[in-house]
Amino acid sequence: xxxxxxLQVYERxxxxxxxxxxxxxxxxxxQRSQDDTTKWELLWSFVLLFTFGLxxxxxxxxxxxxxxxxxxxxxxxxxxxEWRDGTAPILATTAAGFTYIAFLMxxxxxxxxxxxxxxxxxxxxxxxxxxxLTTVVGVISVxxxxxxxxxxxxxxxxxxxxxxxxxAIAAVTALSWIVAGxxxxxxxxxxxxxxxxxxxxxLFALYTVPLYITxxxxxxxxxxxxxxxxxxxxGAATLAPENTMRSFQRALQMNVTGLExxxxxxxxxxxxxxxxxxxxxxxxxxxxxxxxxxxxxxxFNWTDLQQLNTGHWFLKDNPFGTVQTLSFREKxxxxxxxxxxxxxxxxxxxxxxxxxxxxxxxxxxxxxRHYSWINDTLQTVLxxxxxxxxxxxxxxxxxxxxxxxxxxxxxxxxxxxxxxQTLQREGISAIFLRYNQANxxxxxxxxxxxINLTLYTVNEPWLYSVLWCSGVPSVSSEHxxxxxxxxxxxxxxxxxxxxxxxxxxxxxxxFILQKYRSSGIHSYxxxxxMLSAAVRRTSRDVNVMKEKLIFSGETKTTPKWTSISPxxxx
Length: 570
Fold this sequence. Notes:
Layout: E1 3-6, H1 14-24, H2 39-64, H3 69-80, H4 87-114, H5 122-145, H6 152-185, H7 189-207, E2 229-233, H8 245-253, E3 258-265, E4 271-273, H9 285-288, H10 302-305, H11 312-317, H12 328-335, H13 342-352, E5 355-360, H14 373-383, E6 391-393, H15 399-405, E7 410-413, H16 420-425, E8 430-434, H17 440-448, E9 452-456, H18 461-470, E10 474-477, H19 489-519, H20 532-537, E11 549-554, E12 560-564
Parallel strand pairs: 2-3, 2-10, 3-5, 5-6, 6-7, 7-8, 8-9, 9-10
Antiparallel strand pairs: 1-11, 3-4, 11-12
Helix pairs in contact: 1-4, 2-4, 2-5, 4-5, 4-6, 6-7, 6-18, 6-19, 8-13
């Protein structure tokens, strides 16, 4: 009787098969290899790593640019004439691309950790190139059309830097398992020393990063200045249609200290509130005056403007995603809004004793009020009964004449001057700038020269916190916020030192563990049962390599050996 017994038993390695199969379509055992990765595949690994880093920056940029999504959508509206959320497709493609590339990065790291040869499948190579080229095109487009928005990255790092540092330490600490494994398996001492030096140099450099982090939000609370005044930009534009009475009423309910708006002159000389040059985005002019829907807003008289509804578009387009949070009564009030005049706003502000800031747009040359626009606006302000000290006058034209007729106005500027002293010489006591146009030093200089600085538009809590800690006296916002993220210097020092020590302890423990695991008896690896010579000779040509199984048999008289070792090609 012949008895067969296998000398080598193979265990199913489903996890390894999935890793190599998804990454390089190497589902079979004989398709895998522990040989060194080829230079060509190493190049693709670097391309994958670069794409991951670029997409990480791109994703972070759009995450922090959330403060300015409405600004970007308005830019697209000026280009196309149609209002739409242009950030939605960008965010969707960015999230999909980053998830895909991050998944490939994890698979590549798993290959390295398991000692498997990297061999990215050609379909994935096409996907990586598509993600890389798409991101590069996006970066170039932003540089050409919205280049100043890149300033949001260094500004946001003042708030997120301390937390990103902790996340980076966690990631590099996790990589120590792979690094320690490579060092333990390496045969060359030079390679081991080089890898250890590079890894620990990067690790210790990361440990000392907090010494160079300068964040205004890391400060002693006793040094914190007064909470910045909040000016409602176009009212509370996220809760009600911009530049409507309901929007300003909602802003006042949230205790703003001022209201900011945009003023246009009608054809019969009535100043009214409108941000756009046209009426299509925020009114139903297409329905009421279809033949005039493309006309400039200033070419309508006040009687015609009062026939337009300025609330339906807000309920329909839901530009800030807040309509679903409104009550039925609130939606009714919004749906009945009409074009608001400057006089209505001034009376509301006067009653609530809050300041008013408006940007005045000059009508086109063919407009009947093209030359009297300043006087028409000034007369409206003076007749409204509002205290002159509550009015921030921003138009540069005829400023001296306005100062003589209304000496109590707070003369303001929308243009950044060379220095605060220049503004003082011109009699300017307030300035309104975009939040990226003033750094911490300039904020301090404005304060020392008694120039009231207001930064716009501030809608995110992190940005409000950074500006508050920087000493900004006033901000303009569409979404009224008051959150402050503040950390004491001593507390932050204890935090990052503790994180560094824990990370170092984990890294040392991992290196010791990997060394201990590699110092034992090396068992025979079933992955190596292949025709090595054939693999080295034509590793890309041999697609099928059947495993050799050796069996032994015992009989009462004569032993019998049976072997099956065919090698075939497709």
